[in-house]
Amino acid sequence: MSLDARVQLGRGDFSLDLSLDAADGDTIGLLGPNGSGKSTTLRCLAGLDAPQTGRIDIAGVTVVDTTRGIDLPPEQRSVGFVFQDYLLFPHMSVLDNVAFGLRARGEARQSAERRAREWLDRLEIGDLASRKPGRLSGVQAQRVALARALVIEPDLLLLDEPLAALDAGTRASVRSLLRRHLADFHGAVVMVTHDPMDAMVLADRVVVLEDGHAVQAGTPGDVARRPESTYVAQLVGVNMLRGRAHDGVVTLDSGGQIRIANVAISGPVIVALRPEAISVHLQHPEGSARNVWQSRVSSLEARGDLVRLEVEGPPALTAVITPAAVADLGLHEGADVWLTAKATDLDVYPA
Amino acid sequence: MSTAAPARRRTTPVPIGVLAAIGVAFLAIPLVGLLLTTPWSRLPELLTSPVAAEALRLSLITSLSATALAVLVGVPLAWVLARAHLPGRTFIRALVTLPLVLPPVVGGVALLLAFGRRGLIGQYLYDWFGVQLPFSTAGVIMAEAFVAMPFLVITVEGALRSADPRFEEAAATLGAKRWTILRRITLPLIGPALLAGTILAWARALGEFGATITFAGNLPGVTQTLPLAVYSALDTDREAAIALSLVLLVASLAVLLLLRDRYLRGGSS
User: Fold this and answer.
1) Range(s) of the domain holding residue A249
2) Fewer Cβ atoms within 10 Å of its own Cβ: the N or the C terminal residue of chain B?
3) What whole-number distance in Å separates Cα of residue A280 and Cα of residue A239?
4) Which pLDDT tens digit goes with each residue over B62-104?
5) A47 near B CB under 8 A
6) Would you say residue B61 lies in a domain?
7) A143 and A180: one domain?
8) Which residue of chain B is at minimal alpha-carbon distance from A149?
């Protein structure tokens, strides 16, 4: 196991209690809202913060064990850290930035610079070697930060919101670059993000953190399909409804009922419903859809080529329809509509 | 940042303009007077006279030594004030910055009471090692450092406070030990402020008068620095006093020029 960690700490109202493990080559996506403890977790792994209790093993080396009083400082851990705003040293050239870690570990200038150059070439930024960080674009700075963290060949790579500082246009290309280099990386990767797309594309496993505790863990696909918290549901844009299942009917906590295809499941459940699977009508529809709700449109919002439509409920739902449909149906905020969803489009799982 | 010209020109109210002009005149006229009365043709001769040359040499040596001393202990002191969690930090800072506002002559008296031959520490220095600091060149350096160091400490501490400590964290994750971080990250990052503080401290040391004359006396060749020489010459050789004053004025202008980005740029950057 390349990473095996349990960290606990409390600061005022906030408490963090998280277990993480990852094999070599694994990328863990730590997903969570601001203040959920993602960054603190990374800082504990890097040695910039200390957990009050816990144990952290990195590639077989115990770097923290509070029961034995072990707490290795950052410079003695085999960890590469890519900070959200990169933190490239402003007074050093790109080459010196990348060579810094090797020089700090006692490597001779010549070989440190040679290896730094190799990494710059690998990340296709060899021509920036003599530039100062102040004259780099966000994408370039990100690559330099990645090169600087990887050149020391760490056993654990930490990425703090690696794409947050980039604009939407460049994110996709940087994401695929990251994906390529994470695939080559021998050790474990822990990546903090609050963008589900980053987690979907880059992570092998996602851990959802809320208020310092893991509320869900699984493959990105599982987490996206079957969110277990409102935060994740909103993040991945899935309608999440809680209720009690009995005999193919879920009585929702928020009021109303939903018919589901699975008659075997009973007890507290979560119903996940993709917004694309909801149809919008002006009159009560006669059809095969088992679920029909009358409701009122509370908001309409353009999202790329589509329109997000929210209804007051109950149940409060989000549907995604085309602008053409909005025009044809004459939809507006406050309009009375009927929504339908087929029972087979619902994903139902125990809460 | 340049601001766009306002649509309506704002005129300065007359009383403000008049008072401001008086202010400029008050500060500028004495300096203009100094320049006007400077015996330019005799300048080389005046500045190479034994007393003047000695004072120049002594001032250069003592002010540079005092600056070096201030940097040597002032930077670590600034670091401790900015970074260490020590009790009574506010008190220590007050103590350290006190010489900034203390009348230098009081500083001289205090130094005398501490390091004089019968002083708190001075008596042991004398009894055990035969070291006598008052009325010595070393005493001049101490007096200058005493007065000049706060400038350096305050400047550097401010820079350390505003420097982003996360650069140091980044360096630590890359394997740098604390000393390496200090040498290769922290000090370069505060480089401009360190330079400014050093120049400021040097300027203060060069101009030091009160503490020096009180603690070290006014012995030509031993403790008579430029400002002291100016003061002495004023009674005996007015032109020499003016010439030496001019040297100090030029040095001050040079300092201002070096620090122009810090002090001459109007408004905020």
Assistant:
1) 237-350
2) N
3) 15
4) 999 999 999 999 999 999 999 888 888 889 989 998 998 999 9
5) yes
6) yes
7) yes
8) B174
